[in-house]
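Sequence in, structure out. Go.
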Amino acid sequence: MAGLRNESEQEPLLGDTPGSREWDILETEEHYKSRWRSIRILYLTMFLSSVGFSVVMMSIWPYLQKIDPTADTSFLGWVIASYSLGQMVASPIFGLWSNYRPRKEPLIVSILISVAANCLYAYLHIPASHNKYYMLVARGLLGIGAGNVAVVRSYTAGATSLQERTSSMANISMCQALGFILGPGRFFQTCFTFLGEKGVTWDVIKLQINMYTTPVLLSAFLGILNIILILAILREHRVDDSGRQCKSINFEEASTDEAQVPQGNIDQVAVVAINVLFFVTLFIFALFETIITPLTMDMYAWTQEQAVLYNGIILAALGVEAVVIFLGVKLLSKKIGERAILLGGLIVVWVGFFILLPWGNQFPKIQWEDLHNNSIPNTTFGEIIIGLWKSPMEDDNERPTGCSIEQAWCLYTPVIHLAQFLTSAVLIGLGYPVCNLMSYTLYSKILGPKPQGVYMGWLTASGSGARILGPMFISQVYAHWGPRWAFSLVCGIIVLTITLLGVVYKRLIALSVRYGRIQE
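Output:
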């Protein structure tokens, strides 16, 4: 019995399941090691996907201006949104693909798309005209490649038991957070900025290696390395909710797996509810990321350079906070459960936005001149987020600062004190990763042991849609009515979400628990 894992090392077997002849009671040591090697490769895949998205975020705007001077901030908004739009479309497709074919196929194809997108981004200087549209295509293709998130999460859900699930989902989210921290962080900026805008040119292949193209070339190289590791290490594994391994996985007979857990057995109300909860979670964090630059410029008269620097530090700190939260949640969920943690996370986020509501008799500095149109009176998505991609080389010391007179609310809305803003950021940075992780974890448990690719695809798509709509929503409300209305409406949305969670609270349980196969 040396080749078998001891039953005490696995989940307790508390009951038989339909089609149990398809599962082994004991998992071999070889299967256990292979399963976790495969899962860890997907951790790396998630990390590299996250780095690929974020590594150019601080330089998109100056690069866009360099390759096509006709591009304006409104077009920048479309460039940023194209990533989420591509991911929203591709996620259900890759998820469906992964249900009926080996997961290597959609993973490798999606990464190849990302590599091609990065190469296109590096050659944006070649076309004689319409370069901005090529950038739009490049970022959209990168978003399509990022649709493999659904495959990563569905594989992990199918290859872990209920007791392993929360920890594994937390590790995936942690790798994603680390990618977002390191991608736009000061380390990568420092490494690439020394090349300058001109850099060097490899004439044979007409490749410019500069501060704008080096990050995507590195990302393309890491993508190829990731494909090699997937081909060499990733194996197909499935275990049931108790941790018993599947004897065989025949993708040509996927209907057999479907029959073991009939479609009607999944609580569709719970599925829809989690999709809504996840949408709201991504929606409120996307609008928070979007609004902090114009908000701090209006409230504290920061220049664009100061806003990029200080808010970059704040977002990096929130990323570190998220990693710590993911580690803590893995332990806490075993004591109080995922549903209670999700509820607590939503409450913390609500408190964070409530603190942002302006009060008092102190008002922000008014920017009486708007010579360079560097605030947000035109209400475009691109202008709202323009400060995030301003070139650090531009000198904006002479630009007017403060709250633009073209925004009428600046004259009567009290200032949001810096202490308010920082406290709010800490609370939102605490609640968001909790809600994100618990949504994925509960969703995977509600779906049960059947292939989850399509469902995970829809969940990823709902998050991508939230990242598109969140910035658009906040840009309109903030520009027209100011932070008081903007954050009041956000608080209202969170209250409705908490109410929804309360209504479906008892239904958010694992499929095996729901049918009494495993004790909760």
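Check: DSSP finds 18 helices and four strands in the chain. The chain has one domain: 22-514.
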